[in-house]
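Human: If only I could read backbone structure tokens as easily as an amino acid sequence. Take your time, and here it is.
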Amino acid sequence: MYKKITLIKFFTLFNFLLIDINAQENNEETKVKLNEVVVSANNQEFDNSLRNVIVINGSDLQKKGFNSIEQALERTAEINFVNFGLGRNIDMRGQGDKSNVAVKVMIDGKSINMLDNSHGITPLNSINLDNIERIEIIPGGGSVLYGNGTRGGVINIITKKQKENLFSIAIKGNGYNQHKLGGNLEVNGAKKINENLAFSFNIEGFNQDGYQDGYNEKGYFINTKTYINPNEQSDLILGYNYFKSKNTGSGYLTKTQIQDNPKQKGNGENITSINRPEITLDYHYYLDDALEIDLGTFWQNQKINYLKDISTMTVMNITLPVYQNGSSFEDTLTGINLKSRYNYKDNSYLIFGYEFANHDAKRKSIIHYDVNMPIFSINHTMTTLMDMKKQSHSLFALDSHEFNDIFSISSGLRYERSFYKTNRNYISKMLITQKPKNNAETFNTDNQGNNFAFEITPNFKYSNTGSLYLKYERGFISPSPAQFVNKDQTTQKYYSSNLDSEIFNTFELGINDLWWDFYGFNLTLFYTLSKDEISYLGNPHSEAGAFWKYYNIDQTHRIGTELNLDQSFLDDELILRQSIAYIDAKISKGINKGKRIPYVSKIKASVGIEYAINSNFSTFLDLTYYSRTKDGGMIDEKTGKMSKNTWIKDYTLTDIGLSYYYKKLQISSGIRNLFNKQYYTYQDSLNDEYLAGSGRNYYLELKYVF
């Protein structure tokens, strides 16, 4: 739990590339073009020429039988998932083990990233897939509008806003090779009271076994909205969301075990509970046709409790159980977003605003083990209590000005002022043959930081359907409160790290077009140089005495390309899509100069076909390829030099499915990972620990709209 783990046939595959998104929406809607560009301020569409953006419609996610956001985004070429020992985080443009702080994930314009950088996993699976209207994927940057931590990109999940009368029931079933069945039951409804008041709700319960024995998730989602429209110039939305789950796992497998039977139970046992309530209030006001004002406030809280956590460690060649029962994480974020748009000319506008965020994270780490020998015994309990706070104030403005029908330019600036507080308490209680050896440490630190972001993007519309843009962006990734505290190896005392923010500069060239009314084309080339990257030394989990050091020294560069194509034939009854993302991510300064950034695949590609057999019946086939990448290997505790990074093998996943609509009944079914390809979602070759990705699995969904 608390352990920090630090081209196959490219040209053949390229001929079959596909991104499995934006297909038909129900029966009536046919095609969503790849060159659709959306930029959101809060949950509004602002638009048109800032950069290439991918939009996934919620109806397409449901049609393909996905059970979670994570499962759905896995099939998108621009998105990877990284697991370095604590869970999976979204990665874009090669962030590797910094993906949880360098890719911003938002719901209706509100960030859900965790404050605890070393243990925080973005709570993707607390989002109800059936409550999603669409997902906007903005690869690379977005610092002016979205602030800290956007080097890899931004994902904005827009939820449904149902104001008209509706009631529906859906049942989903899924399983692995005809056993381990699971499912979801969903009730969705909306009631329009009058022209000024409406209410909607979405409630879904789930109980699903994992691919590996001993894994199970069960819980429920509650999503509600109240819509108030006092007049034609304004509206207010009050939202309440709640997610609760109980997750059971059995730990890692050895390589021998996973090759013999990837479904078998692991060597550990853990049970965690997650509770995540959220309250939002959004007020939208049209002063006139030229000025719009949005005021959003929100509060979100997540608690993760480790009800049972048993793993193993080796001491003096003896394998011992390690207990972390009672450990917990809590993350609370309160925010205010004030954003306005002033349309001062046709196709020209100014976005400006202020954001406030108060972020508080608490960590309680309990580690206990016993050593019983004929000569001596050890009873050792280590408890770490942390309270981490970050408060930030931001001012920003973005102007998009159209000079003529051919040329426009957007530019913006953001200033952020942050205040940090970190309180850390460590207590070690050890009995060595009944002789106590106790130690306690307390450390408090206050820090402040100033950061600014800037971007400029000229755009050239060279035809009625085609445009080309150039973008330069300066952004930042500010340290987390936990990174401001170091511990000396010799004295075993805490001290302040005095870190600076990481600064990145991104240069991007993008083009999108629609040729011959059926061939969509979207290409992006990018180069990102990051300075003052925060590096890490030491071992906070050493039995001989924990120590660590955060410091600014490294520099990295990431260069790559993203290509999306789509073609439609037979009046959009047949749609083909291809996509490929290539990333070369390396460390360019420091002790590890020239080394690849771990957990970053150079190539991810997808290919597929969707065919509407008739107005009621459609089918699809998707293939997604992941190239090999290197795991975290070993990091020298004193120098930080990486070594023994082992390859994580490449793999291809194949999905097939069909959808049928008859009046108010909708039926979707299919098979994911059709050929039962074995792959790893986690690998630590040094400690011989692996987690298997899901093998062949089946799904069936029935939905009836009353």
